[in-house]
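User: quick one, fold this
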Amino acid sequence: MSEKEDGVYVIEDVKEEGQTALPINKKRNRLLLHKIDRVVLPIVSFLYLLAFLDRSNIGNASSAGMTEDLGLTGNQLNVGVSIFYVIYVLVETPATVLVKMIGTSKMLAIVITGFSLVVIFSGFMTNYAGLIVTGLLLGMFEGCLFPTITIYLSTIYLQDELNTRLAYFFGASALSGAFGGLLAWAILQMDGIGGKKGWQWLYILEGIISLTGGVMAYFGLPDEIEDAWFLNDEDKDLVRQRHEMSRVFHGNQNFSWREVRRAFKTKNFGYLEVHSFALMLFFTDFPPFYPQLSPHWVIQAFRYNT
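Assistant:
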């Protein structure tokens, strides 16, 4: 149970023999969260922003002549886009195991560096086979990013704090849509420089930009928040108290198939599935093709006259 005494939250664990009181000062807790938010959220949001910018390159590149330069015909471009998401989904579960084995900072550094190099090499594609190979590799690396960051944030924040932080994190993808097209347009103006096409420079330069994310992840994010370089000893003690508080409130959080079955039976499960499908349809499936929607096509679709 918990009660508030003079601005201090006291959590008592009465499940076990004896009682353990955990005083959590509200002001100290707020200052701790502010310290963590200032470092962790900008970095993970920037990493997610980079991933969305890089995965949207194929749409901008195809509208700038990549399709013709690679000799793509029929549905080959669509296959190149689809193969990315197939691998993306398949690697998400193994990624949750890997991050626990090698640590968050190393995992993110590997993932970011990996997909950055793939994006750079995409600027040297010459045929359909190259498109497929880079799509496979990009899906493999980027598929590890979301589960790694989500698990990482869940180890830092309590359940009632996590939703707000995830909202900030997801906001990075919307930000990529706000200026990603403008950045692509600027880079595409380099067409012909160095004997390379504009779409090649798009891949190369955005890949180089993304490499900075790997450095930020490795040196900026601690594997365990208790060891964070930006927290003092008093803050680290409070972090440990927060972890104990979470254990007291939520009890045993070990995996259980019984809980999985209960989740499927809840009345909101179907609504959540429909909502998630609609969200991800516009969130991930459509963006690569936005640049190919010409103004004339949009006008005709909405039956406007020019």
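User: anything notable?
Assistant: DSSP finds 13 helices and three strands in the chain.
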